[in-house]
Write a structure and sequence with these properties.
This protein is mainly β and 214 residues long. It has a single domain, classed as YmcC-like fold, CATH 2.40.360. Strands 1-2-3-4-5-6-7-9-10-11-12-13 form a twelve-stranded antiparallel β-barrel.
């Protein structure tokens, strides 16, 4: 998967415990008007890749890949939250498998399986599901159902983009992500609390930072 996509989705899956008090800001969507090119799965992220995202209040956060092993990719943000994603499942959609110091929460999750359509390439109408169990003292349902619900033209801090809109829903939150085939990146992410400790959040991609020599 492209590093930029993985970064933004890593944020969305592992920082559900971070305290963001504002409700998700809605964004104006207009019709794309043309058929978007297929958005294929890109390269896996490597150590040192990072992304800067901005929230509606103007604050920015940095997210960086800090290690990659045979099974997991580990991330860290500028607030000290660390989380890992399984290399066996598609990023950025699959739930994080462990997290530490994320809004005061630490825990793990086991992904039991995937059903439905393959995630990549993104095509309107695709649907899939992850069965997963989270553990933060006791077990809870961490499963998610996802759908590529359509295309939308949106304007973010980085410009105007023609995007695929993907919505994933769990018992605890609804995640909406906008992916730009032209940039090969997710340019906007929304998390809406439905129940439990999940909090609302919105972030938009500002820029990518790559390690020297890449």
């Amino acid at each position: 998967m492209n590093t930029r996509i993985a970064m933004m989705l890593a944020v969305s899956l592992a920082t559900a415990a971070c305290q963001t008090t504002n409700a998700p800001n809605s964004i104006e969507e207009t019709a794309v008007g043309v058929e978007l090119p297929l958005m294929e799965e890109g390269d896996e992220p490597t150590v040192g890749y990072a992304g800067i995202v901005e929230r509606p209040d103007g604050t920015q956060s940095r997210f960086e890949v800090v290690s990659v092993d045979d099974n997991k990719i580990r991330w860290r943000n500028s607030e000290g939250c660390e989380w890992s994603q399984s290399r066996a499942y598609a990023r950025p959609f699959a739930p994080a498998v462990e997290w530490r110091n994320c809004g005061g929460s630490s825990g793990t999750a086991t992904i039991e399986g995937h059903s439905g359509d393959p995630e990549w390439p993104l095509v309107v109408g695709k649907r899939w599901r992850y069965d997963a169990t989270g553990y933060t003292g006791s077990g809870w349902d961490a499963g998610q159902e996802c759908e590529v619900v359509g295309t939308a033209r949106i304007t973010t801090v980085s410009g105007t983009h023609d995007t695929y809109k993907v919505v994933c829903t769990s018992k605890w939150a609804k995640y909406t992500r906008y992916f730009s085939p032209a940039l090969d990146a997710m340019v906007r992410y929304e998390r809406e609390r439905l129940a439990g400790a999940a909090t609302d959040d919105v972030s938009e991609l500002v820029r990518i930072e790559k390690p020297a020599g890449s």
